[in-house]
Amino acid sequence: MSFLTIQNVYHCFFTEKEASLTLANIELEMQEGEFISFLGPSGCGKTTLLSIIAGLLQPLEGRVEIEGEAVTEPSSAIGYMLQQDYLFPWKTIEENIVTGLRITGTYSRETRQYALKLLEQVGLADSVQLYPRQLSGGMRQRAALVRTLATNPKILLLDEPFSALDYQTKIKLEELVCSLLKEFHKTSILVTHDIEEAIAMSDRIFLLRAKPGHIAKVIAVPEEIRNMSPIQARQHPAFTKLFQLIWKELESLEVQKS
Ligand SMILES: Nc1ncnc2c1ncn2[C@@H]1O[C@H](COP(=O)(O)OP(=O)(O)OP(=O)(O)O)[C@@H](O)[C@H]1O
Ligand SMILES: [Mg+2]
Q1: Closest Cα partner for 161 from 174, 151, 149, 152?
Q2: Which amino acid residue places its CA nearest to atom 9 of ligand 1?
Q3: What global pTM score does this model have?
Q4: Cα 183 to ligand 1 centre (Å)
Q5: What is the pLDDT of residues 92-122, one digit of tens each?
């Protein structure tokens, strides 16, 4: 059985004057522990699709299932990390990373220890009592990652989590996220505009097209790249080849659109 199944999902947004079809016929299956990316132009519906998977938004039609159970509302099984870190500015890093534990009623000595251990793993042990404003952008995203992982979600949804960071910080975070997710065997979906990031991190890449948003192509990342860390992967000849292929695919999708 697949870990995540998306069947025939359609979504529409309504305004006073019109209804616009945002997503059409989204079909997808994912195995446990798999890492996939959604790559596609701005406005093609990537965040909308993540929100539906997270149970924050009900699709007009279709069904999302995690381990055979329909997703109908947000739950602690699903961890959602956004482009902006949304840490609470008035709370210390420790209070921030246990927020999910408190909301889900799972805060205990053990779960707190687990969150603090994760914080140490991402190199923020010395920041426990600091406030978000005292941290750099990359440090804040690491804290946000810990907050997302602290509740031990079954699936991680990452909506452009690195896009506001400088190149070096971004690649270091990619490395960190990849190794953490492998260690905990997490199933993850990454939304990105960055072809390199998608190749370096994913097992499969879903290319989306706009109006209405749909899956235009699915590309499997070759095993030799998948087995490498994001930095190593970038050095591999197969990486450049795949980059060019995806670049061309995205361009041809653009041409078909116009
Ligand atoms: N709450 C909303 N009400 C009405 N329209 C919306 C709403 N949210 C998104 N849309 C529209 O749905 C479409 C898809 O938006 P979405 O945010 O999912 O795109 P995206 O692929 O995540 O874009 P980006 O890459 O810029 O983040 C856009 O045309 C957007 O204007
Ligand atoms: Mg978006």
Answers
A1: 174
A2: 48
A3: 0.93
A4: 33
A5: 999 999 999 998 889 999 999 999 999 998 8
